Amino acid sequence: MKTLTLLFFGLLLCPMPLPAQTAEILLQKAADALSEMFYWTNVEKNSAAAPRVVHELAVYYKDKRNYDKAYLFYKEWLQYYPEDVPGLVACAEMQLMRDEAKDALVLYRKVLALDADNLQANIFLGNYYYLQAEQKKKALEDSYKKIASPTRMQYAGYRNGLSDIFSNGYNKAKGYLQKVLQLFPSTEAGKTLERIMILEKEMN
Description:
By secondary structure, this protein is mostly helical. About 80% of the residues lie in helices and about 0% in strands. Residues about 1-15 have low confidence and may be disordered.
């Protein structure tokens, strides 16, 4: 902490001949480092102030689009309040921005365990399972098309594969998207549900 403080004041007292924008960026980085280090080194984790500092830092980094740091502090916030739905949603959002969809999936499932009517979680899970099913269906169909003269057993395997994808993918998506429409008149959710219904008829 002392080193960071000296660096910060050194920049202020001994300014280098840098372009204004570069100097501003350096000062901002120093200020960010100081505020972050202040929490890790100076704030008593059992104090009432600790969660407030964590939340402020999480929101600050989210606004700055520094999703790695924002995720770090939202995760820290959940150490204090593990069942805080807005905190879980924010943490999941940061994981999506960091291309960590599987972890976001786990977080949104936790959200729905606490709040079954959470719109954001239902939208994510509905779309997630739908897109996963679409990818698996395409892979299965591409593989089956490569067979010049499929046997009855191969055809039965193909149909069983489609049935499994529908049960574990499209059907799950359907449940979440129906919940979305109960909560909000989403045109996109309605269109996706229509496509699932068409596939359901084709399967039967």
